[in-house]
Structures are given as C-alpha cells and as structure tokens.
Amino acid sequence: MTGRELAAACGWLPSKVSKIENGKQTPSPADIRIWAEATGHPGAEAALRAELAMLESFFRDWRRQLKAGMRFRQAESLGLEADTRHLRVWEPNYIPGLLQTAEYARFRLAQGAQLHNAPDDIDAAVAIRMSRQQVLQLPTKRFDFVIAEGALRDGNAAPPDVMAGQLDRLMVTTTHAAVNIGVVPAGTIWPFHADNGFWMYDDDAVIIETLTAELRLTHADEIAVYSRVHAALAEVAVYGTAARVRIAAALSAL
C-alpha cells in the first residue's frame, strides 16, 4: 500500500501517515488499532501498543512534561524518592537537586523554564524541590552522591553569591549520617567517562536528563552498567574531611 492508500483506508489525511512514519507524530492506541486493521494485521496491535508504551516511558520530552508547569515534575520526583530505599547519584556538572539551596534551585529551574517555554511557576517548583529534601532525614534510606569537583567550581552553574551559599550548604550536608557525599578531585582520571549525570533508584530505574528529554532505563542489563559506573566513580572520590577540603577550596576561589 502507498501512504495515500493507507490514509484512505484509515480515514485520515495523507499527512498523518507521513508524520507517523517519520516520527513527527506519536500514534494514539486507537491509531495503532486502525493502522493494524487497515494493513491486514490486526494481531499486531497488542505488540505495537506495548512497544509504544515502553518507548513513551523511556523517552519523555521536556516540552511535554513541563507544558503545565515545573512543579508537576518536582512533585513526581517527590514520589519517586519516597519509594526509593537506596538512591545513587552521579553529577559531573551541577549540584544535585536534593542538595540544593533554594537560591541555586531557583536559578537552575528558571533556566529550564526559559529553555522549554514552561509556565512561570518557579516559586511553587522551588518550594516542592525544597520539601523533597526532607527525605534525607529518614534513617531507613541511604543516599550516595558522587560529584565531580568541576561542579563545585563551575562559574556558569550559578552567580557567585548563589554558588557561595550552595557550597556552604554542601559543606554542612557532608556531616549528615545517612548522606554520603563524595567529590571526584579535579585531575583524577575517571575509570569510566560519564558526561551526563544520572540518578539510580534502587535497582529499578536509572534517570538521565538531556537538554531535550528525560530518559528512564528499566532493563536489568542497563541498570547493571550504571551501577558499575557509579561504584567505580565512587571509588576514586574523596569523602568526609577530604571532601570538605575540596568544597572549602572552591568556596575560597569565589
């Protein structure tokens, strides 16, 4: 069948077939049923719908997620963290959200809202991000953050006064019993090169943020790779007093 013939069989405009074929439009479950029936393969509907569901859970574009505002994604993280017993984070570029001050969080969230034309609900989003940090006080949970030293010194991450407050907060957080914060010193050769930060929720999922989308990996073999990378980076990080020396040096450099 040509695209035009398929469109006629489905009762659609030819442009819809073209958009779906070229990945410019996501088909609805009803579209998949109509397509499968029109091509003479109604038995393929269930498998195609399952594949669509998997792809949508794997690749979540920021514009779609944030079109109603930033606060909803923050609320989703609140639920994810509540259900997680062991959270492992690698961040080479920024201070992770659970360790941020309100001022640093505001700066980062405002950048995201501007990039994706999200509604201006920054105050509400910041408030939820701050409330997320209460989970750090729960003794039943474990947190392992590994941060590259460059993230402490990146002048592009936030203005100097905001960065100073953030580093001061980070210094205090290194003393929390349930929170393990490691700093990979500048000049250290990373055992594996991980340009993007990632968050590991138990052994159930890994979330990676890019400029345009959020990726959620749930396959066991993929999670095992990220677990290995996090463990290797954690081994070359410094902790406790040695980590505080690095944070203090970054603060002094401001």
β-sheet strand percentage = 5-15%
Alpha carbon gyration radius: 22 Å
Mean pLDDT: 93
Number of separate helices:
12
Number of strands: 7
Give the overall form.
Answer: elongated
Q: Distance between termini?
A: 65 Å
What is the total domain count? Answer: 2
Low-confidence stretches: none
Major beta sheet, specifics?
Answer: 7 strands, mixed
- Could you tell me the CATH topology label of the largest domain: Endonuclease, Chain A
Please identify, by name, the CATH architecture of the largest domain.
2-Layer Sandwich
Q: Helix share of residues?
A: 40-55%
Provide the structure class. Answer: alpha/beta
Q: In a few lines, what is going on in this structure?
A:
With 254 residues, the chain is an alpha/beta fold. The chain has helices spanning 3-10, 14-21, 29-38, 45-58, 62-66, 71-82, 102-115, 122-132, 150-153, 160-173, 220-235, 240-253, and strands at 59-61, 86-91, 142-148, 179-184, 198-201, 205-209, 213-217.
Describe the fold and architecture.
With 254 residues, the protein is an alpha/beta fold. It has 2 domains: 57 residues, no CATH class; 193 residues, Endonuclease, Chain A (2-Layer Sandwich), CATH 3.30.870. It has a 7-stranded mixed beta sheet. Strand 5 and strand 6 form a beta hairpin. The longest helix is centred in the last third of the chain and has 16 residues. The radius of gyration is 22 Å and the shape is elongated. The N and C termini lie far apart (65 Å). 22% of the residues are buried. The model has no long low-confidence stretch (mean pLDDT 93).
